[in-house]
Amino acid sequence: MPPCGRERSIAELLRGTPRRGRCREPDPASGLGSPRCSLTEPGPGHSHWSYEDREHWGVGYPDCAGTMQSPINIDTAKTIFSPQLRPIQLSGYSLPASEKLKLRNNGHTVLLELPETLAITGGYAQQYRAVQLHLHWGSPSGPGSEHTVNGHRFAAEIHVVHYNTKYDSVTEAMVYPDGLAVLGAFLEVGPRENPYYQEILQHLHKIQTEGKEVLVPGFNIAGLLPANMKFYFHYNGSLTTPPCYQTVKWTVFNQTMQLSHSQMSTLVMNLRNDDGKPLQNNYRLVQDLHRRQVLASFQTTLLSPKQTPSGSDASEAAEGHSGSSFHAGDVLAVLFGVLFAVTALAFLLYIYKHRSQNTRMDSPTKSKVIYTAASTENTA
């Protein structure tokens, strides 16, 4: 039986001891087969949730009022660099077109069911199998990502949900502290059409109303996520929809994905919710951190030794991208380089003036090679 009811303490979460209670049948709208649980049966109106009532989710789903909730605002100045966070590695994400995937409108989002052959095989201490992916977005008048970075909300956000392979199913796994892992990435409007997202967006007109579903050909699911999986933020949080179980190890990538303006409009304008209204602004507002640490796989600021995570904290998170700020040593290196260049130039000019005018070049002049340093990642 899954734990139900009141919020579990941190000690209970670490022990992985489930709290027993009465559970109802899985809620199909969640997309996870998640049980709706409470110490007492929820009354009328609590078995169904909406984004318009998101401030009151905790009444019918007690975990939604917990202290380890998601999404959060990622303050890059307060993140902790953890060199133990290794690049995320995926397996089985490229699917043949012959494999059909179920795409549906569940009244809250567009959800694509994924076969369990897809897995996270690196970057976490455990292996996690994929279950589904879904999107969160805003409206024509505003963005709709769930997580924010330094207070900035992006146009949309994708979540790919996985469960720990040590458990038999996602329903069992989702109630344990190490049960779920979600990969998140921000979506922005760019100049070109994204061919991977088009594999989903081109079918939205077929599932405009709640409950509609369609089979779509398999494609490379990894194309929906950033190609560079080295740079990301990591923290312990929750599902962002009821039942809000606080059992998610979050990975939010630093690199954003781009969709064309037309594609973003398709996402925002095509679907309707279970009340027949336009399905828009399907995001939860950011939640308090409550002293949780947000780790980064790269240095976002100049860190002092005190900001380096302890071995236990880092190993739990692991379960480098260089910063954009200049160190004092960097400044000295630049000054030394400039001084050396000036000296070398003066020496060359001296040699040139004293060379014989009849000296001939034995080889043609080489063309200049301009070295361009790799651009640093934009964390905002």
From TrEMBL:
InterPro entries: CA_dom, CA_dom_sf, Carbonic_anhydrase_a-class, Carbonic_anhydrase_a-class_CS. Its EC number is 4.2.1.1. Residues 47-298 form the Alpha-carbonic anhydrase domain. Gene3D superfamilies: Alpha carbonic anhydrase. It is an enzyme of class 4 (lyase). Keywords: Glycoprotein, Lyase, Membrane, Metal-binding, Transmembrane, Transmembrane helix, Zinc. GO terms for molecular function: carbonate dehydratase activity; zinc ion binding. Its cofactor is Zn(2+). Reversible hydration of carbon dioxide. This is Carbonic anhydrase. It comes from Falco tinnunculus (Common kestrel).
